[in-house]
Amino acid sequence: MPVIFQRFVNSDNFYYVDTHGVKNYKTRFVFLLALLSMILLVCIFGYITLLFEQDHPEATVKTYADAIWLMMMSSTTIGFGRISPVTFGGQATVMVMFVFGVGIMGGLGALAASKILGFSDTNVKNRELRSQNAQIIERLINLEKTIAQQDKSINTAKETIEKAMDDNSDTKSS
């Protein structure tokens, strides 16, 4: 499974490399991956919860559908309603689903809001600014070198003129 996942993530359709050499993941694939992860977690944790709860006499989780409902409600932090875990294993599974569910659902919401509302990616702007700053610094260094060479040439010319003037004044005095 990890090899398939690695191939999928490294495919050309999953990301593109910008002019700064940074991988930018395409939103639709990140969204799809998060959604599939959420579905997979709900199904797996629902089954695990059902295993813990089904034999307990006070359990409200009696079917796989009840367990899926419980996982969906816990992942979205809405609450359980009449269905809730009564065993320690069921409660622990729900707690883990809270953590993963809130993270994935929050990420999906942020991703959707970013695309719908058109928030700009400040990381891209920062990379562009760093690139521009590097170009400016390179030009500044080149200009400083040119100025230093011109100063050297001016000083050499000044020394030559002063020497010529001294030689001229020495020849006039003699």
TrEMBL record:
Read off the Gene3D superfamilies from this record: 1.10.287.70
Residues annotated as transmembrane: 29-52, 95-117
Coiled-coil positions: 126-167
List keywords of the entry alphabetically: Coiled coil, Membrane, Transmembrane, Transmembrane helix
Q: What is this protein called?
A: Potassium channel domain-containing protein
The Potassium channel domain, residue ranges: 38-108
